[in-house]
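ugh ok fine here u go
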Amino acid sequence: FIFLHVYILLFCKTTKALAWKKALTNIRSEVSKCDLCSNPQWLFVVATGRSGSTTIMNMLNAVPQIFIAGENNGVMESLLDAYRKQYRLRRRLHFEPGFGVGAWYHPTINKKNEMCDIQQFTKDLIGLSQVNPTKRKIIGFKEIRFTVQ
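structure:
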């Protein structure tokens, strides 16, 4: 434990650590400018296999202002699971006195920043930056791998 503590103290004082801290601060300030309801709007094609969802995706992509990516092998379901776990953590931190100390220490979780991070992750996942995102008014993806809980 003492070795780990000393290592963390030494790491926190290095130039590399300060550069990481600055980079994370810059990223967070960009994310805080995120507007969840602004353009582009989101569209999701959710279907079962062999139902014509690829044809619908291709038809939508024929419209210049629309970009719908293909399937993501269920990645969004994993992201939803992570969001649910984070939601439960946020509730525990808020409603359970004494929770959030020691191993569970956590500063306040900003829900808007969390949602902006998820939105940016999804834009990166579908490859939006490679398809001239400024011209796209509607973005999204199609998925056939999902479960309803």
